[in-house]
Amino acid sequence: MAAPAPGGVTVPRGDGTTVIRLRRGSSLTDFADKINANPASLVTVLFHLGEMATATQSLNEETFDVLGEELGYVIQVVSPEDEDRELLGTFSIDIEGEAEADEEFLVARPPVVTVMGHVDHGKTKLLDAIRQTDVVAGEAGGITQHIGAYQIHTMHEDVDRAITFIDTPGHEAFTAMRARGAKVTDIAVLVVAADDGVMPQTIEALNHAQAADVPIVVAINKVDKEGANPDKIRQQLTEYNLVAEEYGGDTMFVEVSAKQRLNIDGLLQAVLLTADAALDLRANPDKDARGVAIEGNLDRGRGPVATVLVQSGSLHVGDSIVAGTGHGRVRAMIDEHGEAVEVATPSRPVMVLGLTSVPGAGDTFLVAPDDRTARQIAEKREAIERNAALAKSRKRISLEDFTKALEQGKVETLNLILKGDGAGSVEALEDALLQIDVGEEVELRIIDRGVGAITKNNINLAVASNAIIIGFNVKSEGQNAEYADREGVDLRFYSVIYQAIEEVEASLKGLLKPEYEEAELGRAEIREIFRSSRFGNIAGCIVRSGEIRRNSKARVFRGDRMVAEGLTIESLKRFKDDATEVREGFECGIGLGSFNDIQNEDVIQTYEMREKARA
Ligand code: GDP
Question: How far apart are CA 401 and CA 52, in angstroms?
Fold first, then answer.
């Protein structure tokens, strides 16, 4: 059925229940394809609904919802997780089928724990204290490497049990991972300082854990301190549905001192008891590994390194893997003791070497049948991610804004590519940039981001999309700065986030005018004055420094005093001949146009304005 839509165009309409599935990051053209419409008419319809978009631009879910409702379709935007499932299906990797087949091979795996709580309540200290208790590492070895997670062993009811702790400060990592839909944590340890009580971030942390359906063990910390009041905390937390066992609830509260390492074992026992009571933690270790990246960074010597948490299967040295949009063959695995690992089983965190790029916290990883498949999956993921990012980063402008901006002929988009030294800094930069109030005429889009040096690929993308590349604590690789220069791509390097923000903001508000600074070209001393009725006074000079160029700017000094400025070297002669420049040590005749007030021993300084290089 076709009926006029807003704007008078004709578009095939749905009956209000017709379901159209679109990938996240789809455009109007993709939608038009599915309903046999002309993309241009969808642009018109959307325009009349108050939004402006081109036919090929990625749109977000809300926009499709509005458009779908108008035209009688129910639009389902497919998430990256669904995508992944479908994507892997096309490579004959069947996640659901596998899960079913797993059932008889499942074996117990250690719980994965995240420590959360208010700042200064002792999360870091507690993670340190727990590290020290490791019976395997013993007194001598200890856990030596910070890789973003560690595993310890403890005796529980006469059985040697392992527990994995996510060792990233704060609960940012937890949130970041959850935002990506990755579920990493089995149990949350909520740290509350006994002398301080429940604080805003305590509540935030417990909300996160409860929202993720993660059981909580409360660690009442700093009980060694004077004024510690553990019972008050038990009391306070009942308001948040955390009722202590002593009060008839099912949450375990453990009193500890991270500083004096008191009752750390009690906490570990509580974690295991809670895990055993509330969760069925099992996984099949006998298949290709799959899991989540916890941390990643670019190591000068070793290249991209990532700490991954194996969630199912086993990861082996030599496996072909995809992690986020990176891929590669596992060259080596290193554990928290700095020792090489050959095989990592479920719940084991290991640092992996051999990836082509650094995955972000919360990116999923998996083992592919071979290198080629790994690369293809990574490439597909990258394309999907880029489209989704385009949809996400697009700052929308309203119809009024657009009309006004259009009248003024000023609709402009600033495309950015971000590169930084760590996944965290790139994310922070992106978040901060997207918070800039861009005003009405411009739109800010972050079309790509990544960790590591600026590559030729980045520059090519910048050329294709007319983007500026921002490097945060990174450089361009080898010849790439030249390449960028040749291609006219603006590379900007920063080491302070706010400076990057300031400049981008400035550029959005007036597209960043170049700054100029004065550069002295040369000085000439007047030795003799020739009076000419036709040309005015001509200064017979000797060039004392630099060079004098015709048409450059000039000032005249008499002793320390400047007697004239804003002048121009209007004529310049070597003997009888016109010259364009005269160098240090040579004599010349200089005419300063209508300015005639010169004397012997005056100094003529010449200068030019140069575009200032930005920091
Ligand atoms: P975070 O911000 O939650 O990671 O807190 P930290 O682990 O950095 O600890 C904050 C401060 O509290 C530090 O000065 C610690 O030494 C101190 N602290 C941590 N645990 C204890 C404890 O059990 N007893 C006492 N007295 N001080 C502690």
Answer: 10
In the reported structure, the alpha carbon of residue 221 is separated from the centroid of ligand 1 by a whole-number distance in angstroms of 8
Going from the C-alpha of 397 to that of each of 29, 378, 413, 416, the distances in angstroms are 20, 33, 11, 18
**Residue whose entry in the numeric block shows the structure tokens 């294709």:** 464
- Structure confidence by residue, pLDDT tens digits, 268-312: 999 999 999 999 999 999 999 999 998 888 888 888 999 999 999
Q: How far is the CA of 615 from the centre of ligand 1 (A)?
A: 39
Q: Is 121 close to ligand 1, i.e. is its CB under 6 Å away?
A: yes
Q: Which atom of ligand 1 is nearest to the CA of 128?
A: 7
110-280 and 399-511 share one fold: yes
CATH number for the domain formed by residue range(s) 399-511: 3.40.50.10050
Provide CATH code, domain 110-280.
3.40.50.300
Q: Which amino acid is at 515?
A: E
486-531 pLDDT, tens digit each = 777 778 888 888 888 877 777 666 544 456 678 889 999 999 998 8
Tell me which fold the domain 515-612 belongs to.
Elongation Factor Tu (Ef-tu); domain 3 (2.40.30)
Q: Using the mean position of ligand 1's atoms as its centre, give its distance from the Cα of residue 136 in Å.
A: 25
261 CB near ligand 1 (under 6 Å):
no
pTM exceeds 0.70:
no
On whether the CB atoms of residues 185 and 309 are closer than 8 A, the answer is: no
**Domain ranges, ordered by start, for the chain:** 2-78, 110-280, 399-511, 515-612
